[in-house]
Design goal:
Elements lengths: L18 H4 L2 E3 L17 E4 L15 E3 L1 H6 L4 E2 L4 E4 L7 E4 L7 E3 L5 E3 L7
Parallel strand pairs: 2-7
Antiparallel strand pairs: 1-8, 2-3, 4-7, 5-6, 5-8
Amino acid sequence: MDMFGDPVANPKGWDLEVLRDIAVKFSDGPFGSNLKSSHYEPEGIRVIRLQNIGLGILLDEDKAFITEAHFEMIAKHRCLPGDVLVGTLGDPNLSDCILPEVIPTTLNKADCPDWSSVAATSG
C-alpha cells in the first residue's frame, strides 16, 4: 500500500492494464519428478526458488543449479532478464522480483510463476 497505493482508488495514477494483454507468457515451474533437489548441482543453469524471491528484490544468496542437459528437458520454464517472478507460497504469501540482467538464463521452480515482458508505468 505504501509503495503503490490503494489498487482500487489508484491515488498514484498508475496505468491500468489487463495482465494477459501485456504479458508475453505466464508459466509456473516444473512440478514433481521433473525437478527435485537431487537434480541440483554445484554449478550450471540457475534455478530460482521461493527463497530467492523477496519483496521486490531477487535474494541471490541461496543458489541452486541444474545441468544444461536437464535444463533442456524442461526448458519451457526458462526465465529471461526482465521477467517478473512471483513467489506464491511462504511468508509473505506473495512476493515478487524482476529477474536482473546478471542472470542471463534461469529456470523458475514450481510455485514461482513467471510473467514475461510485463511493463508497468506511472501516469
